[in-house]
Amino acid sequence: MDQKAATIEIPELIQFLQSSLNDLPDERKPGNNTKYQVEDAVMAAFSIFFTQSESFLDHQRLMKNNKGKDNAESLFSIKKIPCDNQIRNLLDPVPAATIFRAFQEVYQWLNKNGVLKKFLYLDEEILIALDGTEYFSSQKINCPHCNCRNHRNGTTTYFHGCVTPIVVSPNQKQVINLEPEFIKKQDGYQKYDCENAAVKRWLNKNNQKKYGYPVTLLGDDLYSRQPICELALKQGYNFIYVCLKTSHKTLYDWLEFLERSGEVTTVEKKQWDGRKNLIYRYRYTSRVPLKDEDSSLEVNWCEVTVINEKTEEIIYQNNWITNHKITENNIEEMVKAGRSRWKVENEGNNVLKNHGYNLEHNFGHGENHLCELLLSLNLLAFLFHTVLDLVNYTYQKVRKILVTRTTFFKDIRTLLKYLWFKDWSHLFSLIITEHDPLKRVNSS
After folding, report:
1. Measured distance CA(231)–CA(203) in Å, rounded
2. Tens-digit pLDDT profile for residues 384-418
3. In whole angstroms, how large is the CA radius of gyration of the chain?
4. Pick from 153, 236, 372, 415: most CB atoms within 10 A?
5. Cα–Cα distance between 302 and 307 in angstroms, integer?
6. pTM greater than 0.90
7. Nearest 5 degrees, angle CA 105-CA 119-CA 210?
């Protein structure tokens, strides 16, 4: 398919979620009040995240009473709107993995329609950045799967976290988030879970072949350990991981020896950033042992130091290990790939935490799966908006008209509170018309 012609509408994306909602667990006994369906509870929770409005369902109940119709049904196919407590009770038995198929179908659509080609980097590879983040924290609420921190003052903080795999590219402002891997105490285990163990589970579940392209994994210093590197290679991945001197004594002892032997190559390039000349000093070498053992994995190492040419101030410095062969021709691209790991924080987790999705807000904890399912629905809402921003012309036009993400969601919330829309096209057309004087005159 022609990449320029690829487009998708909100109902199609929502269908990816709805198609995964078959045979949902329902722990209510036949005699209980089953007025509300579990599927409606899932879609109700999703609608809150997609509109970034905790009051969305309350407004739609009021609209239903006043007008006999509501946006929850017309835009999200919610037949009957449960209250917040009913939503939490209905969703607690539903494993988060129930909706992971929706993440996978979105990825497959992007691949099939050529959209992923925009993200290809290095040797036509997909870059997947891995990073851990917390999304629930409380000193009172906890469940059997919570991890915990004991503080010096005698208090305990209970928390949930996850690893968020995200497709990134130095050439794209958007990121594509994949289904998460949860950092939680595992069934049958007494030990608390950690990011390291969660990444290993993710690697064992997800072979590189599922992504349709060669994949290079990006990660911080936590990932540049032999067990994770070896597992990544076993699963078909390449990797570029941050590698700090403080945690890799053997590797950096070898680097000192290689440098004295003249086996560390240095390349310098100048670049004007619009205000000042920068010197990019690259250093790299091959086949350095990762640890002090005969069985050590050998990796390739590189470093970049960014210097203000005029002041000689060091602006940035970092180091990585990789299984990719490093040459003078690809060192700049290799470093750009390694540095794009920050997109998982800047364009991913930072947006989710601070720009409307409120990732760390306690939407509900539950006793079983509620916390994880709500987190997954929030991530899915973020993914749907990202896809629309990538391929839907009308959505792009509305975002451009309203300029900021904050204004976009504020206007959406206001319109959905007071007006009924038969579909999303109706809503977006109203925004476009109201901001186009000629169309406004013609429509009147």
Report:
1. 7
2. 999 999 999 999 999 999 999 889 999 999 999 99
3. 25
4. 372
5. 17
6. yes
7. 40
